[in-house]
Amino acid sequence: xxxxxxxxxxxxxxxxxxxxxxxxxxxxxxxxxxxxxxxxxxxxxxxxxxxxxxxxxxxxxxxxxxxxxxxxxxxxxxxxxxxxxxxxxxxxxxxxxxxxxxxxxxxxxxxxxxxxxxxxxxxxxxxxxxxxxxxxxxxxxxxxxxxxxxxxxxxxxxxxxxxxxxxxxxxxxxxxxxxxxxxxxxxxxxxxxxxxxxxxxxxxxxxxxxxxxxxxxxxxxxxxxxxxxxxxxxxxxxxxxxxxxxxxxxxxxxxxxxxxxxxxxxxxxxxxxxxxxxxxxxxxxxxxxxxxxxxxxxxxxxxxxxxxxxxxxxxxxxxxxxxxxxxxxxxxxxxxxxxxxxxxxxxxxxxxxxxxxxxxxxxxxxxxxxxxxxxxxxxxxxxxxxxxxxxxxxxxxxxxxxxxxxxxxxxxxxxxxxxxxxxxxxxxxxxxxxxxxxxxxxxxxxxxxxxxxxxxxxxxxxxxxxxxxxxxxxxxxxxxxxxxxxxxxxx
Length: 491
Prior knowledge:
Blueprint: H1 3-11, H2 47-59, H3 62-73, E1 77-81, E2 94-98, H4 101-104, E3 113-114, H5 144-159, H6 161-183, E4 188-189, H7 191-207, H8 215-233, H9 245-249, H10 261-274, H11 276-286, H12 290-322, H13 327-339, H14 346-350, H15 353-365, E5 371-376, E6 380-383, E7 388-391, E8 396-400, H16 401-404, H17 424-430, H18 457-472, E9 473-479, E10 482-488
Parallel strand pairs: 2-8
Antiparallel strand pairs: 1-2, 3-5, 4-10, 5-8, 6-7, 9-10
């Protein structure tokens, strides 16, 4: 067994979540904090949700919307509304916002929180987008099928370990070669190249399906994924441009599946033909139907992996562009010290403390999935840093992670990107509060919880991306979403 395989076996091993490592996420004793009614209001029927929707999506944006309500209510826990809402959504927009690390951590306790059909809140896209079935992301761990599908997903990731790094480096070399060949003519946008790279990389590693075997998929597969994803989440995504047209035409009703049925059918046929080995394993080893295996594989590939990785890698490059501290030189020096002679592996990347910290800090400030939801399974007491609140069975909790991850009770200078924040002993302790993956970075993914199956693969792959970048280049110059110059490594 290779060292890479052993490393990935360790990070994908199923086990029950460990107990919290500090008192921050522990339930307080009844007398330790004052009991307080949850502040805030849902407003008048129809009008209240509409006003909150416009503030959230247009006038203020999510970050300001939640910040203003924290100030107004003098609490990080309060009642409010989140999109989508009136007029054509059959959803309840009422939520209890939990916006500090301590209150947000309750979302990971499966004894008190239910995760059924709340991936994007009370709104759920039509199951027609997923083959007329509820895929794993919409299932609660208490549902028997969740265990089958979660174990299937973790197995896919585990088995991909032998091809993960060679596939990544090979496709990145191709991407960089293409970008370099165009730089002589001016800046080159990285948005499409990154999407094509991710589609090819994830298809090959997760599904064993090579887009190069289908000229249409090689050229357009990422577009089919983009459109299929967009129509499902568009009602909940804030868009500042072209208002009020966006609110009238894009945020007022859910989108029908037929608009992207042709795209999804092409993706289905591609996976069905090229991913036969993974599909058969789902049937024989996890007792899934062929349809369940294909549609869940597509959702994992498209919604979880492609969508999540794409957003995160764009954030990584944006962070490199905005840095004024000279972090590229520090990253380059560490990468070449740790991997210059032995090459890239999961092992060598794990030794790159600054690279990993840079990745974690990007996840802290720009998590790929900004909102997490959970429904109260029963009445319980929820604690913030300064109060205890009574939550009733059935109430929907909502956490906006970019704000939760700026909790000043946990993170020093929380608004600032600090590249080495997660280094040394203090940095490792802070990983207990890095909540980008529906659980802490120090938690364990298992079939009994909803923590992201790729919780360890995502930061490791991002670290590999940065390491590959600084083995190949001494520096890169980024302007907006384009590369304007690259300085190749000197031999």
